[in-house]
């Protein structure tokens, strides 16, 4: 039954598996159990998925209550198509290591950039937004 | 989620869709109007039974409840958000409502306090403004440190309005020691800047003085004990600037045009000329750098204020051919 024709509502998505992208860059996958008018979410059997390159790793997290303002987007996961992925799943330790390496490389290149800019007498661009990932 | 809970959420969301303010509900309202119009058309065409578009359930509730979504309690410093399921959207304003409304007429202490707050506010704004100005100056200096920056500034100067050009020149002269030090590896580009700068027209004697004063008394670099003036004589751009300024001043003084001088300006001018002459005579000739161009009225300037012997001495220093100049 369509409760509210002409509107978008999460009511239809209850009890389905969802992928939720948060503002701090984390990706959560879980079953959407409850919502409210602010789009606060209750996720069940949640897993935090970390992606590095073509690999990913899942960290089981249990039950999540997510405040609505922190959600960038969410979408339903098609359970049949879920396994048709080109990505390779690896262990948690491995993916965390990969993530650390990637972060380090990024910081190095950022440092070099800042140094180069300084040498040329240009100002360093500042990150004015809170959301950076 | 139970059915009841779902219904509750739906009800809340639906109430949000209907308010007096069209901005809040534009999309939903427009959708519904279009839907109704389409069904009315279909009805006319097809003669079908009139199909009621699924309407919202809650209009009657909406009419009953009107409330202040933000409450100001008397004597409090802030606002309290009253948020019910009927209108959970309204948040506290970030705007600060003044306490002025609560001030009684006989309450002088409170009024004084408010005045004090205003004054502090003003002071804070002033310091912010000067900070910003300093930051802007620093950024400009950074630009000048780079070759491209100098070229761009040189190209830009002829096109600026007089006041803006003056500001730039003032900045350059105030920070001359710093610029000259940074200049060492790259004098070639400074000469292009020099030509741009010196091509600028400076029309007021007062400004000349301001600039020269900056040169003679301006802050020295921490490492060097020299006056900026002395440093200028050893740097091509510096010496060219100096000569050009003196020449301009002399030109203005000797011409008939009335100058807008303030009290003490002429004295400062003569003092500065003496200072330059002294430095020139003291600096050994070997260290003096060839300027970009040598103005012809410098000697006349010195003649005006100094004795013949000194002028001879300076002439030798400046290595003027002597043939083009007329001795007064």
Automatic annotation (TrEMBL), chain A:
One of its GO terms (biological process) is mRNA processing. Gene3D superfamilies: 2.30.30.100. It holds the Pfam family LSM. Residues 5-80 form the Sm domain. GO terms for cellular component: Lsm1-7-Pat1 complex; P-body; ribonucleoprotein complex. It is found in: Cytoplasm; Cytoplasm, P-body. Keywords: Cytoplasm, mRNA processing, mRNA splicing, Phosphoprotein, Ribonucleoprotein, RNA-binding. InterPro entries: Lsm1, LSM_dom_sf, PTHR15588, Sm, Sm_dom_euk/arc. PROSITE patterns: SM. SMART domains: Sm (SM00651). GO terms for molecular function: mRNA binding. Belongs to the snRNP Sm proteins family. Interacts with SLBP; interaction with SLBP occurs when histone mRNA is being rapidly degraded during the S phase. LSm subunits form a heteromer with a donut shape. Probably involved with other LSm subunits in the general process of degradation of mRNAs. This is U6 snRNA-associated Sm-like protein LSm1. It comes from Callipepla squamata. The lineage of its organism: Eukaryota, Metazoa, Chordata, Craniata, Vertebrata.
UniProtKB/TrEMBL annotation, chain B:
InterPro entries: Pat1-like (IPR039900). GO terms for cellular component: P-body. One of its GO terms (molecular function) is RNA binding. One of its GO terms (biological process) is deadenylation-dependent decapping of nuclear-transcribed mRNA. Signal peptide: none annotated. PANTHER family: PROTEIN PAT1 HOMOLOG 2 (PTHR21551:SF3), TOPOISOMERASE II-ASSOCIATED PROTEIN PAT1 (PTHR21551). This is PAT1 homolog 2. The lineage of its organism: Eukaryota, Metazoa, Chordata, Craniata, Vertebrata.
């Amino acid at each position: 039954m369509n409760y509210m024709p002409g509107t978008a509502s999460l009511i239809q998505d209850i009890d389905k598996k969802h992928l939720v992208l948060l503002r701090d860059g984390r990706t959560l996958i879980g079953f959407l159990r409850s919502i409210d008018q602010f789009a606060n979410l209750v996720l069940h059997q949640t897993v935090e998925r970390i992606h590095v390159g073509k690999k990913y790793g899942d960290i089981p997290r249990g039950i999540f209550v997510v405040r609505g303002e922190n959600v960038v987007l969410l979408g339903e996961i098609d359970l049949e198509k879920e396994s048709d992925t080109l990505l390779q799943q690896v262990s948690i330790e491995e993916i965390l290591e990969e993530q650390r390496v990637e972060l380090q490389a990024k910081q190095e290149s950022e440092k070099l950039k800042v140094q180069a800019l300084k040498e040329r007498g240009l100002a360093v661009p500042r990150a004015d937004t809170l959301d950076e990932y | 989620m139970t059915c009841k809970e779902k219904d509750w959420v739906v009800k809340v969301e639906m109430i949000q869709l209907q308010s007096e303010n069209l901005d809040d509900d534009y999309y939903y309202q427009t959708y519904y109007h279009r839907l109704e119009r389409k069904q009315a058309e279909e009805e006319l065409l097809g003669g079908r039974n009139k199909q009621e578009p699924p309407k919202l359930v809650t209009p009657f509730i909406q009419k009953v409840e009107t409330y202040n979504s933000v409450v100001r309690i008397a004597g409090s410093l802030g606002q309290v958000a009253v948020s019910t399921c009927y209108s959970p959207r309204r948040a506290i304003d970030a705007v600060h409502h003044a306490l002025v409304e609560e001030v009684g007429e006989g309450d002088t202490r409170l009024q004084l306090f408010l005045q004090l707050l205003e004054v502090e506010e003003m002071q804070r704004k002033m310091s912010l403004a000067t900070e910003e100005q300093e930051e802007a100056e620093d950024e400009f200096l950074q630009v000048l440190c780079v070759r491209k920056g100098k070229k761009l500034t040189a190209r830009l100067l002829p096109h600026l309005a007089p006041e803006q050009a003056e500001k730039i020149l003032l900045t350059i002269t105030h920070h001359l020691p710093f610029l000259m030090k940074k200049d060492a590896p790259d004098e070639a580009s400074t000469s292009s800047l020099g030509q741009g700068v010196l091509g600028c027209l400076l029309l007021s004697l007062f400004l000349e003085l301001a600039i020269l004063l900056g040169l003679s008394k301006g802050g020295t670099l921490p490492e060097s004990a020299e006056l900026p003036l002395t440093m200028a004589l050893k740097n091509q751009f510096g010496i060219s600037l100096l000569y050009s300024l003196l020449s301009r001043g002399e030109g203005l003084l000797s011409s008939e045009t009335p100058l807008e001088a303030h009290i003490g300006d002429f004295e400062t001018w003569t003092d500065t000329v003496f200072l330059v002459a002294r430095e020139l005579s003291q600096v050994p000739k070997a260290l003096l750098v060839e300027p970009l161009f040598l103005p012809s009225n410098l000697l006349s300037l010195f003649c005006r204020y100094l004795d013949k012997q000194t002028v001879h001495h300076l002439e030798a220093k400046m290595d003027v051919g002597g043939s083009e100049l007329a001795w007064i």
